[in-house]
Amino acid sequence: MEALRSWSLSGPPHDERGLPTAQRPARHLGPSWAVRYWDEGRRTVKGLCWGCDRLHWERDGHASPPHPVDITVEGEFKYGPLRSDGFGDFLPDDPAAALDLSDGLVAGLYGWARSIDDTLDLDVRDREEGRYDAEWDRLFRQGSAPAQQLADELGPSRTVTYKGLAHGGPAAVTSVIVRPWRPRANLR
Question: Which segments carry the region annotation Disordered (predicted)?
């Protein structure tokens, strides 16, 4: 917000920093808020898209969210670890999803998905009942940390649900909605 305030106080003529500066709050606020951009040169107002970095004449220029809003983290053999209705499964660095995640989180989600693939390959190869149960339990527990980090990085504009391992894994849960971390108020 400081960048936006600084830019707006700089007085006309405003430079090319205006649009990217205004896009930051649009991305942070998400699809439930309307952020408008006044183009002084064309003397028009356009809506800033929270996900695609384009200007639209209407508040929702896509008619439906172009990017996943409600995201599920779920580990499944040979599938991306993220899913969303109407968007399917996808990888954390998929440019169409417009998530803009940290490199560490992207690597963590890829590693978690790869471990699921490797463990299932071993489980199918060895066909020994219960041999990999401890590893499945570990992978289930391990997946909740990147789900929480995903919620923290995405902020309040999207919801994140952690579903664990697909097809009921040994430690299945129905779902856990993960909220972005917020500091607790001091209630003294």
Answer: 1-25
List, in sequence order, every beta strand (DSSP E) within 40-183. Answer: 44-48, 55-56, 70-75, 82-84, 88-90, 159-165, 176-178
- Here the tokens at position 131 are 């041999």
Q: Give dist(CA 24, CA 50) in Å, integer.
A: 8
CA distance 82 to 75: 8
Report whether 42 contacts 18 (CB < 8 A).
Answer: no
Long-range contacts of 167-174 (CB under 8 A, 24+ apart): 167/76, 169/75, 169/136, 169/139, 169/140, 170/133, 170/136, 170/137, 170/140, 171/136, 171/137, 171/140, 171/141, 172/140
Report pLDDT digits (tens) over 113-150: 999 999 999 999 999 998 999 999 999 999 999 999 99
**Cis link prior to 13 (omega < 30° from 0)?**
yes
Domains of the chain, by residue range, sit at 2-56, 70-178
With a threshold of 0.85, does the pTM exceed it?
no
Distances (CA, A) of 89 to 75, 113, 114, 136, 160: 10, 12, 15, 21, 14
* Region of poorest pLDDT, from 3-7, 31-35, 63-67: 63-67
